[in-house]
């Protein structure tokens, strides 16, 4: 085979793989995802009554009002395009001081110690969930701020607690955005 034939073969194979792997494969699977899982394929967006996007059920948001449950802290300030952890070791003084400060602020606002998930950042920096225990320690503050009976708020937390995936994987969790939207929907 001459060098020119080898170059021709290489160019043809490159074109075939580029079309197959670079165009056909992504288009087929994107199309499949749009048909089979349209909500997830489009980011699991959450919309309000006016059909405006107010968040995603997969990305945490910062809630600071006493009327809302607060999620996990984010090392990236909840910026989805910058997903990632702080990469600080557990013995890092900066991390230790931040956790202590967050715990003190939480205790001052809630009158109780936080659960570990409320003062540690997730690996992605975007976790939309907290533990049921993390929600429970915020229940008194939220019910007081909204003038709701604590039992009513606890019931809502229980209602929005998701179980383990397939009953065995992961831990029970509460989606903070979904819970806060449900709180906003309560009529007094």
Distance between the termini: 83 Å
Number of strands: 5
> What structural class should be given to the helix and strand makeup?
mainly alpha
The oligomeric state of the chains shown is single chain
Please describe the biggest sheet, giving its number of strands, its sense, and whether it closes into a barrel.
Answer: 3 strands, antiparallel
Helix content: 40-55%
Number of domains: 2
Sheet with most strands: strand arrangement: 3-5-4
Rg on CA atoms, Å: 23 Å
Give the ordered list of helices and strands.
HHEEHEHHHEEH
**Total helical elements:** 7
Q: Ranges with pLDDT <50 over ≥5 residues?
A: none
Shape: elongated
Keyword list:
7 helices; elongated; 5 strands; mainly alpha; 3-stranded antiparallel sheet; 188 residues; two-stranded antiparallel ribbon
Question: Could you explain the architecture of this structure?
Answer:
- With 188 residues, the chain is mainly α.
- It folds into 2 domains: 3-39; 45-184, no CATH class.
- Helix content is 47%, strand content 7%.
- The protein is built from 7 helices and 5 strands.
- Strands 3-5-4 form a 3-stranded antiparallel beta sheet.
- Helix 5 (139-146) packs across helix 6 (150-159).
- The relative contact order is 0.12.
- It is a single-pass membrane protein.
